[in-house]
Write a structure and sequence with these properties.
The complex is a heterodimer of chains A (about 375) and B (about 250). Helix content of chain A is about 35%, strand content about 0%. By secondary structure, chain A is mostly helical. In chain B, a hairpin with a 4-residue loop joins strand 4 and strand 5 (about 75-85). Classes of the chains: A mainly alpha (about 375), B alpha+beta (about 250).
């Protein structure tokens, strides 16, 4: 009798220790939750281009909210330690201030995390090498990247379907009928919606030149930097060759350049082939996207591999240490040779592109805190 | 009775619609960039003059106010602005194919000429890249120069080998020509018939080497490597004058 009881107890113990079998989603289990998404209209300032928003992923308040939660939730990664926000911190204008980013299990990437701001205006490929055609496509990649989140989408979908909150949020954002309809496509749509709202256009430069605010004045130094940055006709100051790749109002460019930071014997010798790895063209080796210069004060270190810790180093590089290669951007083929005071003027102008509202805006902050 | 008139209307509509379709054709403008008469291949070295070799990494320009002129003189508008880009023509096959702009649904018939502008016309040049949605030819932020308040009408980039060592590190060619002063236009005589439902190809060419002509030789690109500010308009105008003069039927 005793042994029977013992056996029964053990059986109960073992059985109770087993994780619950995943329950298949019940068809229509979310239909009681109202689906009435509220359209969200981006308020873009005059002087900014219109943003391309995919017809199949219009912005809604519910979609953006869901995207914000997913952006900050480590549920996407293998060991639930890494979220999008791990490498894209709001206080860093949505980069991580590291030369190269950390992934799961202490693994390290090979490139610096790009700042996420005004990315909805990028039309010629995301990432440093432009390999991703849209924000939706871009968001697919870190989840399965072996260094970043090292997960697989089936696992992520299963976790989200079982979650206590997400099924209802997906319902409200996308009108799904049951949690089984939660898919990677909807996940990345939501994240892309949130990312399209990460806008910055309230810098001193914007107030002065986009909004013509009469109360905003540039210092003499900022003006000199401004003239060199944009190469104003009649200016006695040197052309710093900046605007070709960093034109206003976005201060980035939908193109890829070799900006002369790497000394190579041949075009095959770049340690990171960049754009060339995507196009397969040798002439594209060592080319990278020209990122926005907005909020540089928050986004150090600089360049695709984070090799420069300060803006002084960056300006020194362009002024005095550009390395020749056949595919060096021709705008950098002429020596710039700025004086020390001119370099400082340029940096002072770059600081006018600072918009701290991006890093303080609660709409962009971690919803779990 | 109602049914009969409905079918009559439907038949008439279909007939009218098919008439319209049959009366239309497509015109393709096929642009070829040449260098001394041969297809221009990007990144290929070329002799610039007796002492310099050069290769080009980019050559592109805006075309505008393109009209076909019918035999009776009536103009047919093709586009007010478009963009011709040879930057990716890095092999002979692509260079031989050239760059095409296609214009469907044009009235069939006999034509005698094509009018074309090189650059951005004054009215459009008052706008800026941020005024346009992506995909529009004028949305290219790399081709808008804030300080000039102008588009860059034509952009030519390349590198120079001046000492014959085969390394093109002795200078750069950077002819970025913009501002209303350098807008140029031309009428090219070209007789052709556009058949109903047919396609007519107009072969156009511009020789990049000829764009650098100066006197009996070529612009001294060591002394004048760039038309990079509006202060240096002389060479931008020279380049664009040469370009429109050379631009023609292939």
């Amino acid at each position: 009798m005793k042994s029977k009881l013992l056996f029964f107890s053990l059986f109960l113990l073992v059985f109770s220790c087993r994780p619950p079998e995943p329950q298949p989603p019940v068809k229509g289990d979310l239909e009681d939750i109202p689906y009435a998404p509220t359209a969200y209209h981006l308020q873009l300032p005059e002087g900014f281009p219109p943003m391309d928003i995919p017809a199949d992923n219009p912005l809604t308040e519910e979609g953006i909210d869901l995207g914000r939660h997913l952006f900050y939730d480590p549920i996407l990664s293998l060991d639930s330690t890494v979220s999008c926000s791990t490498c894209h911190l709001q206080e860093g204008a949505f980069t991580d201030n590291k030369a190269v980013s950390d992934g799961v299990m202490g693994l390290q990437g090979t490139r610096s995390a790009m700042a996420i701001m005004n990315l909805g205006f990028v039309t010629a490929g995301l990432f440093w090498d432009g390999r991703s055609p849209s924000l939706e496509d871009q968001a697919l990649q870190p989840v399965t990247n072996p260094v970043e989140m090292r997960n697989d989408w089936a696992t992520v979908e299963q976790r989200l379907r079982r979650h206590s909150d997400y099924p209802a949020m997906f319902r409200k954002a996308f009108g799904i009928s049951d949690s089984g309809e939660i898919s990677k496509e909807l996940v990345v749509k939501a994240i892309a919606q949130f990312e399209r709202t990460l806008l910055t256009f309230n810098s001193k430069f914007d107030k002065k030149f986009l909004y013509n605010d009469p109360t905003v004045e540039f210092t003499d130094s900022e003006y000199r930097g401004f003239e060199m940055f944009f190469d104003f006709p009649g200016s006695a100051l040197p052309d710093a060759q900046c605007f070709h790749c960093h034109n206003a109002p976005l201060f980035g460019n939908n193109d890829f350049f070799n900006n002369g930071i790497e000394e190579v014997a041949t075009l095959d010798d770049f340690p990171d082939l960049g754009r060339g790895e995507i196009t397969g063209k040798t002439f594209d080796n060592g080319k990278f996207r020209a990122p926005t210069l907005r909020n540089l004060v928050f986004t150090a270190p600089y360049m695709h591999d984070g090799r420069f810790e300060t803006l002084e180093e960056v300006i020194d590089q362009y002024s005095d240490h550009v390395h020749f290669a056949d595919n060096l951007d021709e705008n950098l083929s002429f020596p710039i040779n700025l004086s020390e005071s001119q370099k400082q003027d340029l940096i002072n102008f770059l600081y006018t592109l600072t918009d701290s509202s991006l890093v303080l805006d609660e709409r962009f902050s971690n919803p779990f805190e | 009775m109602k049914k009969k008139s409905f079918f009559f209307a439907l038949f008439a509509l279909a007939a009218l619609s098919s008439c319209n379709k049959e009366g239309k054709g497509t015109v393709v403008l096929n642009f070829k960039a040449l260098y001394d008469g041969s297809p221009l291949v990007m990144m290929e070295p070329y002799a610039y003059n007796d002492t310099l070799d050069v290769f080009f990494s980019g050559f592109n320009f805006y075309v505008s106010n393109i009209r076909l002129i019918k035999e009776d003189g009536e103009p047919v508008e093709l586009t007010d602005i478009d963009f011709v880009d040879f930057d990716d023509m890095d092999n002979l096959s692509l260079a031989q194919q050239g760059f095409t702009l296609s214009f469907p649904d044009l009235p069939s018939g006999k034509y005698k000429a094509v009018q074309i502008g090189i650059g951005v016309p004054m009215m459009l040049n008052e706008t800026r890249a941020s005024d346009y949605p992506s995909g529009h030819p004028l949305a290219k932020d790399s081709h808008y120069w804030d300080a000039w308040e102008s588009y860059i009408f034509s952009m030519t980039s390349g590198k120079i080998d001046a000492n014959g060592d085969g390394v093109f590190d002795d200078g750069a060619v950077l002819y970025h020509c913009g501002s209303d002063e350098v807008y140029r236009s031309k009428e090219l005589t070209y007789a052709f018939t556009l058949d109903k439902k047919g396609t007519a190809v107009i072969p156009l060419k511009v020789d990049l080497h000829h764009c650098f002509k100066e006197g009996d030789g070529y612009i001294d690109v060591i002394a004048h490597p760039a038309t990079h500010t509006i202060d240096n308009l002389t060479w931008a105008m020279k380049f664009m004058d040469n370009m429109i003069q050379d631009f023609g039927i292939d």
